[in-house]
Amino acid sequence: MLAAERQAKITEMIKSRGSVQVEDLAQELKVSAMTIRRDLVKLQEEGKVERCHGGAVAKKEVNYAKKQTSHRNVKEQLASKCASFVSEGDTIFLDAGTTTYEIAKRIKEIPGILIVTNDLEIARLFMDSEVEVFVCGGRVQKETGSMFDRYASGLLADFKFDIGFFGAASINEAYEVTTPTVEKMWIKRETPKQCEKAYLVVDHSKFDRQAMVRVNHLKDYTAVVTDYKFCEEELEELRQMGTVIIRGQN
């Protein structure tokens, strides 16, 4: 079995069982414990699992409160840049997340806008405003206050948006957007296609990381709003791909 195949198998085993022990994996996959430890190190670096004493556990979502405090100043600056793209009367999709929540705070007084979101915290923010709000129905992921299942996808399929703002869990070295769960992939992949302008809004911490499921590519957005500092070689590569980068930090 090739290393990539073995690591994919380990990821599936951890996902289905919740946790695994190094010795058990070594025995089942007929390799040394040292090989398994190396596999787990690589899988953790890719954001697919979390290592623990003697083994690994399934990757867990970070709860909303922790996300709000992580890189908050940067998220606020990115949000301010994005808010400047919104015009009176726009129909807007706001993806679930704390950066898009910051965008919501900055656009709630713009007249005539309509918001569609799969984030309960964002919807709650607009309760004391004049903004019309649609919330995607379906199962609530309590850790993040978001909805991503087929019911949410079904509602979104009927909308066309003037502008959409999207977050990401991670972006790998090939400039692919990835997410930890299959459920999140569909909305994040399909909804940008329904936007006249779609912006990926991500801080520097999301780059050079990999999650389990591919969503799309940076070139699939109108632009990427970020504080990440690309080198000149990377910027030229992105330009050739048709990717537009907007600096979102002063």
TrEMBL record:
PROSITE patterns: HTH_DEOR_1, HTH_DEOR_2. The keyword Transcription applies. InterPro entries: Carb_Metab_HTH_regulators, DeoR-like_C, DeoR_HTH, NagB/RpiA_transferase-like, Tscrpt_reg_HTH_DeoR_CS, WH-like_DNA-bd_sf, WH_DNA-bd_sf. Keywords: DNA-binding, Transcription, Transcription regulation. Pfam families: DeoRC, HTH_DeoR. GO terms for molecular function: DNA binding; DNA-binding transcription factor activity. This is DeoR/GlpR transcriptional regulator. SMART domains: DeoRC (SM01134), HTH_DEOR (SM00420). The lineage of its organism: Bacteria, Bacillati, Bacillota, Clostridia, Lachnospirales. Residues 3-58 form the HTH deoR-type domain.
